[in-house]
Amino acid sequence: DKARQIFQLLLTHRGQWFYREQIVEHLWPHLPIEAAERDFKVALNALNRALEPDRPPHASSFFVTRRSNLYGLNPAARIVVDADDFEQLAASDDVDLLRRAVALYQDDYLPDCLYEDWPAAERLRLRHLYLGTAERLARHLLRARATEIPARGWDEAIHTCEAILARDNCWEAAYRLLMRALAAQGNR
Q1: How far apart are the C-alpha atoms of 166 and 13, rounded to whole Å?
Q2: Global confidence as pTM
Q3: What tens-digit pLDDT sequence spans the chain (188 residues)?
Q4: Dihedral angle at the C-alpha atoms of 49, 52, 53, 56, nearest 10 degrees?
Q5: How far apart are CA 167 and CA 170, in angstroms?
Q6: CA dist 64 to 17, 39, 101, 147, 149, Å?
Q7: Is the CB of residue 172 less than 8 Å from the CB of residue 132?
Q8: What is the helix, strand, coil percentage profile of the chain, to 5?
Q9: Cα–Cα distance between 11 and 181 in angstroms, integer?
Q10: Based on C-alpha coordinates, what's the Rg of the chain?
Q11: Is 145 exposed, middle or buried (0-12, 13-18, 19+ CB in 10 A)?
């Protein structure tokens, strides 16, 4: 479990380097420092074995690199992260790309670490980006539907607003957009 969390921590902050003490502080905050550093070594070895099972003993790891007392993901490693794809799609103003962004966001970031403090800021940032992106998509859909033949329906805009409210039932803009879409259908 902690090997996975080391990887998740480094992945969340790719491009950054951490001192061993920083990693230990994030993942083993309640342990005495000696025990935490021992557990770090064990977890790091488990992580390296999981990522590179055929790596020869005592060979340097390719994915998790060490610079003196700093650890991070190797910048030369090609690591594909769906959160990066989501952010790129969410930056668009094209309806099809916004649809893809909203569809890509399946759940909050690292849902298996809900009770850990270290991923909370990234989780909130991505959630807020999702909510804003879905709201922009709903606005685009409502504008497009207003210029089309009413018989084509407003279902996608309604579904998008309902998806926003399922994640955050206090997102007021989604309620306003939902009311507009339902009123346009004649459902008061």
Answers
A1: 28
A2: 0.86
A3: 899 999 999 999 999 999 999 999 999 999 999 999 999 999 999 999 999 999 998 899 999 999 988 999 999 999 999 999 999 999 999 999 999 999 999 999 999 898 889 999 999 999 999 999 999 999 999 988 766 655 345 899 999 999 999 999 999 999 999 999 999 888 88
A4: -90
A5: 9
A6: 10, 17, 29, 53, 56
A7: no
A8: 60, 5, 30
A9: 40
A10: 22
A11: buried
What's the token pair of residue 14? Answer: 């790719």
CA distance 36 to 32: 6
Structure tokens at 122: 């990234």
* Encoded tokens for 149: 């033949």
What span, in angstroms and rounded, lies between the C-alpha atoms of 48 and 157? Answer: 46
